[in-house]
Amino acid sequence: MCITTIGKVIKIDNNKAFVQLKKSTREIRVDLLDVKEGDYVYVSGNLGVEKIEKKEAEQILNDREKIGNFK
Amino acid sequence: MTEKKLEISNRILFFKYALPCAETLIKRKNLTREEFRKMIKQIAEGREPEKNKENIFKVAMAHLTFLALERKKDKIDDEIIREYFLFNHDETVEERFEEMGDFDSESCRTYPGIVRKIESNRASVETLLGIKPYKKDFVDDLKMQDIVVVHRDFIVEKISKKLASKLWELKRKQIPCLGKNIFD
Question: pLDDT tens digits, residue range B69-114?
């Protein structure tokens, strides 16, 4: 699986985190990552794959929004 | 970076399943077309790509590491690779599609199939998508009626009839109108 979404961590509970996605909130596992509330992560299914810098995440989300508007 | 990452015990099997998805990585410039072709050739010849090349498949590596850890394993073995790509991959694809809907989710999935026609560098395989040609670089001694798994444009490997039938039934849960199990 090569494609991810970006989520903002809104709550952490041990190895689980609730992330805000574009359209929904999802509970994901963050066993592989060292994250805190407010961090942005790449999400694949129910797994946090990689942490991403806030600035980069916002840029990508903004770009995706623009692309979406052209569809 | 992903903090935890386990080693893969059979890197060639991993690349057979993962490389068909590399088109996305090429589009993102994480991988060049030349590097992709080189890796295809290496795998076809039974040679391992350079160390750590698997790390460009960040998502697959994260899922495989997570699954191996869940199974209390210290390496990503063949069982973990097949469990992820054959049984867990579809669900992940579907969730992403529901969220973003901006890619062809059908072609991202793996499918069991039967070889119906063999040509020089391709073979036509019957899957639930119909009969389509696939590249056969990764599979030696392919014969008519062989049972295989396909991923995007590639035949990944030969699999047992029992496994193919199980995968078909799994697809039936996702696609209730799916016809007769071609492996029975």
Answer: 999 999 999 999 999 999 988 777 776 666 666 566 666 789 999 9
CB contact (8 A) between residue B108 and residue A23: no
Distance from CA of B107 to the nearest CA of A (A): 11
Q: Cα angle at B40 between B38 and B42, to 5 degrees?
A: 70
Return the half-sphere exposure (C-beta side, CA atoms, 13 A cut-off) of residue B20.
25
Inter-chain contact B3–A32, Cβ cutoff 8 Å?
yes
- Interface A:B, Cβ pairs < 8 A: 79
> Residue B59 is nearest to which of A4, A51, A64, comparing CB atoms?
A4
Contact B2 A49 (CB under 8 A): yes
Complex confidence, ipTM: 0.81
Q: Which position has the token pair 């942005």?
A: A40
**pTM metric for this prediction:** 0.87
Give the CA count within 13 Å in the CB-facing half-sphere of A52.
Answer: 22
Q: What is the Cα gyration radius of chain B?
A: 16
Among A21, A49, A71, the residue with its CB nearest the CB of B62 is A49
* A5-68: CATH, from 2.30.30.140, 2.60.40.10, 3.30.720.120, 3.20.20.30: 2.30.30.140
Q: What are the residue ranges spanned by the domains of chain A?
A: 5-68
- Predicted confidence (pLDDT) per residue in A9-38, tens digit: 999 999 999 999 888 899 999 999 999 999
Cβ-Cβ contacts under 8 Å, A64 against chain B:
100
Averaged over successive runs of 10 residues, the pLDDT of chain B (184 residues) comes to 83 96 82 95 96 91 95 97 90 67 69 95 93 95 96 95 94 80 88
Task: Give the C-alpha separation, B24 to B128, whole Å.
Answer: 24
